[in-house]
Specification:
Strand order of the largest sheet: 3-2-1-4-5-6-12
Radius of gyration: 19 Å
Number of strands: 12
Strand content: 25-35%
Shape: elongated
Distance between the termini: 18 Å
Structural class: alpha/beta
Length: 252
């Protein structure tokens, strides 16, 4: 049984994960951490990580960037692995994540979906073949009109995977409205669409001479991210210190 502390337990993802774990015979939420508490939790709740005194095997974090530093301090003190799902972290916090990984296991991912992370692996292979052959690469992401950031963290993660496979040759282009020139071969266009209740959608386009290859992922509910986070928690529990990502879970 994997004992989980849910950091950000009262948030939307925290509640989705809690409901999912209730049906999982191999995992259990033993405590929650959140400054808000609506009384719905069936486990002990704490306003801060420092107050939590419940024994556990791993922490899942779906909170906000401002809460991550204190969580990392707590995790290092308690020697607890962390599945870090919060995005938009500052450079200072990212440095702290790296320092923490020298003492505990930290799994960090911009997207917890097993599907997206499988696509990341596919993109690396596709880029080595198609990118090397001169195919133009574009990413188009679509989300509902309530999403605050653009482009999405997932779109950047996809672009980073492509660029890693290409030894950093691509330049990210977010806006062509002020340019009047032909597309450069080493551009990687990233476009964002916001509207209505569009589910999270990411398309990667490889466009070559008389040929078009598209890879597409659509997230219809948050349960796919919850499922990935729970699988990551089970994987990370008991692992030695170091930085991990979802490819380790998929291939592990």
């Amino acid at each position: 049984m994997t004992r989980i502390i849910m950091h950000g337990a009262m948030g939307r993802m925290g509640k989705v994960i809690t409901e999912m774990v209730k049906k999982d015979e191999t995992a259990e939420i033993v405590a929650g951490i959140d400054i808000f508490d609506d009384g719905s939790a069936s486990f002990p709740m704490f306003k801060t990580a420092a107050e939590c005194d419940v024994e556990a095997d791993v922490i899942i974090d779906f909170s906000n960037a401002g809460a991550v530093d204190a969580l990392l301090d707590y995790a290092v003190t308690k020697n607890l692995p962390v599945v870090l799902c919060t995005t938009a972290l500052s450079d200072e916090t990212l440095a702290k994540v790296k320092a923490a990984s020298e003492k505990i296991a930290v799994l960090k991912s911009a997207n917890m979906s097993m599907g997206i992370n499988t696509i990341i692996s596919l993109l690396k292979e596709a880029t080595k073949v198609l990118g090397s052959a001169g195919y133009d690469i574009e990413i188009v992401e679509r989300h509902h009109n309530q999403k605050l950031d653009a482009p999405s963290g997932t779109a950047i993660a996809l672009a980073d995977a492509i660029n890693e496979a290409a030894d950093g040759q691509y330049e990210y282009i977010f806006d062509r409205s002020q340019r009047r020139e032909k597309r450069e071969k080493k551009e990687l266009g990233i476009s964002a669409v916001r509207g209505g209740t569009i589910p999270g959608t990411h398309e990667i386009i490889f466009a070559g001479p008389d040929e078009l290859i598209e890879i597409k992922h659509v997230a219809y509910s948050r349960s796919i991210f919850a499922n990935g986070a729970v699988n990551a928690a089970k994987y990370l529990a008991g692992k030695p210190a170091g930085m991990y990502d979802m490819s380790d879970v998929i291939n592990g």
